[in-house]
Specification:
The protein is mostly helical. The protein has helices at 2-12, 34-37, 41-55, 59-67, 95-118, 126-154, 184-202, 224-238, 241-254, 262-270, 318-324, 334-337, 342-347, 364-367, 402-415, 419-434, 446-460, 467-474, 516-521, and strands at residues 71-73, 280-284, 314-316, 397-401.
């Protein structure tokens, strides 16, 4: 174990922490084992910060958008995804599942060391003991978050206790070990145990998180609101809506976090400067020092910046665009800017070229340019690339927002047969996004309610990494048979595998393959069916 840590600590010097600049100092030369390198609360915080940083990766959000019906091939595409995610060609050797798997387990290697060392470090004062306890609680929440995402992406059936998830990383795993996958039940048990332990600690803990400058800085660190929200999310993923509703209601009523107004919603995604206690429950903070094309969120869809001149290799899918801009208004026009739902103007860049003959034009790819604007955009202008001093158009990763709790609440009401209650929860989000009171939707039956919830999740959480998981877990309840890609999104691909009919809801590809790199190192590990 100590030898493993030496490599991890050396590697951690290459990462800038995801929180404060005063926590970025690396370990001194020669400090290569736990008992030497991690002896104080400050050491523990630095190690946990490296775990935060590793979790801040865009692979899951980009994969989800391209594999489903959020994104499509862009006019500056240089081959990205066209023979892989866009056409559902996913194999154990594919980059997306490999990166998703490795990022979570690399982060867990750091997080588990924090948890282990927190129990043996001798505090220098009662106040220091509280700091160590808080750091451990944050680590437990992050461990629960990582395990829930691993389960969501790699389990064939999230609601089946006996289905396999991933490797249960509830301790430091030695390089000499070859652990097997464990069941969803074991994952859910660990998730809730970690979250309950963290909540118990935080309920009486007197230590504050490290100081932060922005008013919304409290969302930089795993907190009790995030822990309660994760319990709601985990119960919803399991299909235990009785408990999901308890925890979603808890967050909605006691977190003090309000849904963002249209103006606040734009600030949230374009400058990370929304007011305190607005919308975000937890984010993975990114700093100017971390501004890198390899990791910046917006660079998952474009080479340079989120504008038509920024070399977008993926664009907004036509079917999603049509939901946001049903009248097909020209971007950056008076009519487009008057669309009442702020999500249209956040997702679709004003530099987009919205073809008025998109259904019949011959050169669709170059005539209809629907540029993604949600990450790294600005409020006005065509040459969109935010230049805020707080992030240098390098967005924080929003991991949980209060709107998700309302959407989980809607699922709980639909599951209970309360169609009006489901509509009320959805309407709360619409009122906020439109900036005025909207007529609540009316659902004729349970299937219509589930479809309405799935559609609202599609609009609200687009390009944030949810669509793959949402279709997987509630698509059949919503009565859909597959993706909602528009046929025009296949122009220029000419690959039969790209037909949405080739990814029905019963496809084995709704569970990602265990990466070949893992299989090579651990030959006994169980592969998912179909791979």
């Amino acid at each position: 174990m100590k030898k493993v840590l030496s490599y991890l600590l050396i590697a951690s010097a290459l990462f800038v922490t995801s929180c404060n600049e005063d926590l970025t100092e690396t370990f001194a030369s020669g400090q290569l084992t736990e008992d030497v390198a991690i002896t104080s609360s400050n050491d523990l915080r630095q190690l946990l910060n490296s775990g935060y940083n590793i979790l801040a990766r865009r692979e899951a959000a980009v994969f989800t958008s391209v594999f489903t019906d959020e994104a499509t091939k862009g006019f500056n595409n240089g081959g990205q995804g066209v023979s892989a995610e866009i056409v559902f060609n996913i194999f154990p050797s594919s980059a997306a599942p490999t990166n998703i798997w490795q990022n979570y387990y690399f982060a867990l290697a750091r997080i588990n060391r924090v948890i282990a060392r927190a129990d043996v470090i001798t505090p220098v004062s009662p106040e220091d003991a509280q700091v160590i306890a808080r750091i451990k609680a944050e680590a437990l929440i992050l461990r629960a978050y990582a395990h829930l995402d691993i389960l969501a992406y790699f389990s064939p059936d999230m609601k089946n206790n006996a289905a396999l998830a991933g490797i249960l990383s509830d301790r430091v795993i030695l390089t000499s070990e070859t652990p097997l996958r464990t069941t969803n039940e074991a994952f859910y048990t660990l998730i809730h145990s970690d979250l309950d332990a963290a909540l118990a600690t935080l309920s009486t803990n007197t230590a504050s998180p490290p100081p932060t400058t922005p008013a919304n800085g409290s969302t930089f660190y795993a907190n009790s609101n995030f822990a309660r929200g994760l319990k709601a999310r985990a119960y919803a993923y399991k299909g235990d809506y009785t408990n999901a509703e308890i925890w979603a209601d808890n967050v909605i009523s006691s977190s003090g976090i309000a849904l963002a107004s249209p103006a606040q919603y734009r600030l949230l995604f374009w400058s990370d400067s929304e007011a305190a206690n607005t919308e975000v429950i937890f984010r993975l903070r990114r700093t100017i020092q971390q501004n890198s094309q390899d990791f910046n969120l917006h660079n998952g869809w474009c080479s340079i910046r989120p504008s038509a001149g920024g070399s977008p290799f993926y664009e907004v899918g036509r079917s999603l665009h049509n939901l946001l801009n049903p009248q097909n208004h020209f971007a950056n026009s008076v009519d487009f800017n008057a669309i009442p739902d702020v999500r249209a103007r956040v997702i679709i860049a004003p530099s987009s070229v919205v073809s008025q003959t998109w259904e019949t034009v011959d050169d669709y790819l170059n005539s209809d340019r629907l540029v993604l604007h949600k990450h790294g955009g600005v409020a006005t202008g065509n040459n969109t690339a935010a230049t805020s001093a707080t992030n240098a158009f390098h967005n924080d990763y929003k991991i949980m927002r209060i709107s998700e709790m309302y959407l989980i609440k809607a699922e709980c009401r639909a599951n209970a047969g309360d169609l009006a209650g489901a509509a009320t929860a959805v309407d709360a989000i619409r009122d906020a996004r439109f900036g005025s009171n909207q007529v609540a939707p009316t659902y004729a039956n349970a299937t219509a309610a589930w479809k309405g919830i799935l559609d609202e999740r599609r609009l609200e959480l687009a390009f944030e990494g949810f669509r793959f998981i949402d279709i997987k877990r509630i698509g059949s309840l919503a009565g859909i048979t597959g993706l909602d890609r528009h046929p025009r999104d296949y122009d220029g691909l000419n690959i039969p595998g790209g037909n949405p009919a080739n990814l029905p809801l019963n496809s084995t590809k709704w569970a990602l393959p265990i990466p070949q790199s893992e299989v090579n190192a651990n030959g006994a590990i169980q592969q998912n069916p179909g791979y």
